[in-house]
Amino acid sequence: VLPGTIIGQSKWDVDTPALLLDLDIVERNIATMADVFRDSPIKLRPHAKTHKSPHLALMQIAAGAIGITVAKLGEAEVMAAAGVDNLLISSEIVGPSKVARLIGLAHQVNVITVVDDLGAANVIAHAAENAGVRIPALIDLDTGHHRTGINAGAPALALAKDVARLAGLELVGLQGYEGHLQHIEGLEERTNGEAESLGMLVETRRMIEDAGIPLSIVSTGGTGTHRILAEQGGVTEIQAGSYVVMDTHYASIEGVQFGHALTCMTTVLSKTKEARCIIDAGHKTLSLDSGPSAPKELPGAVYIAQGDEHGAIEFADGHCPLKVGDRVEMIPRHCDPTINLHDWFHVTRGDTVIAMWPVAARGRVQ
Ligand SMILES: Cc1ncc(COP(=O)(O)O)c(C=O)c1O
Burial letters for 75-102: b for 16+ Cβ neighbours within 10 Å, e otherwise? Predict the structure, then answer.
């Protein structure tokens, strides 16, 4: 089916499974986030690893974002081709083909890279120097997430001094994504955790600046911590991503004020048991890494994945009111990996599909 033929249909009539994006709610989420930072010295650079859509990235920029964060070069290339000209790639760039692509991007747009290893930084710096470009770089700091990032304090200072000497890189700041804090349920516990992670960033920045290396960017934060950072200060950019579409995992934590713009329309394929039915959405449609997605507006119903292509909707009272052919709208548990399973956003206003937007950077994991 050509995407154009779907426009104008009711969301209840689209072929399934279909990813739906409620544009009214997207606009509200973007405005709510923009309001938090409107009069703040901290700026927004939303993470597009969530939505992988230049449409959404350009809406975020139109609402005041200073640029876009991406996880992968492939995402950066898609964004650059669509006119996003200020990008931070939040993952380390390693390997000759990736370094060559980074240099290629640096010829087209303003692209910032992150480094946590002197050897890898050297490779990028030499390639950049040979190509006649200078690539802005952030030292990636481990502020408690224990994924990427050099340790705060003396190790980061030593790396910063070495990177500052590389002609092909321009050391401009620090990144310290505190992913371990984002989904802490209680606001007080999250706030205390943030004070600790932020302390590492602020203190390391001070040490590096005291050594005569000025840093203009300190980038961190997600949907779970952006508001805490807006109050605590000390950073210059926020990388929140999920807020634009939301998911049930983020809805379960205290103090997150965004609406569910992302859902997935599914169809009941089979109903051979009294208490449950089977829908056409399994692992290939709704990601399971953070837990099961939620049936929308079906009290007492839960989703239980049944393999790649199927899921069960089970009713606590032992009676499933749905029949074969009925539609079930699901709210994803984790937005980023769910979006990456789909080719298209069916963009809706009210119940009507008004546009089809490609998930343009879908699968761009390199
Ligand atoms: C490095 C980095 N920054 C920012 C984010 C955005 O966080 P969120 O989607 O929780 O708002 C992520 C998400 O995984 C990330 O990995």
Answer: bbbbbbeeebebbbbbbbbeeeebbebb
> In this structure, are residues 239 and 219 in contact, taking their beta carbons and an 8 Å threshold?
yes
Q: Are 69 and 111 in contact (CB under 8 A)?
A: no
Round to whole Å and give the CA distance between 243 and 259. 8
Q: Quick one: CA dihedral 294, 258, 142, 104, positive or negative?
A: positive
In 3D space, the residue among 67, 38, 64, 70 whose CA is nearest the CA of residue 51 turns out to be 70
Calpha distance 275→317 (Å, rounded): 8
- State the closest ligand 1 atom to the C-alpha of 50, by its place in the atom list counted from 1: 9
**206 Cβ contact list (under 8 Å, min separation 6):** none
Pocket test for ligand 1, best of 36, 47, 225, 338 (most atoms within 8 A of CB): 47
Residues with CB under 6 A from ligand 1: 47, 50, 90, 177, 179, 182, 222-223, 239-243
pLDDT tens digit string along 276-323?
999 999 999 999 999 999 999 999 999 999 999 999 999 999 999 999
Q: Ligand 1 pocket test: pick from 44, 49, 245, 253 the residue with the most ligand atoms within 8 Å of its Cβ.
A: 49
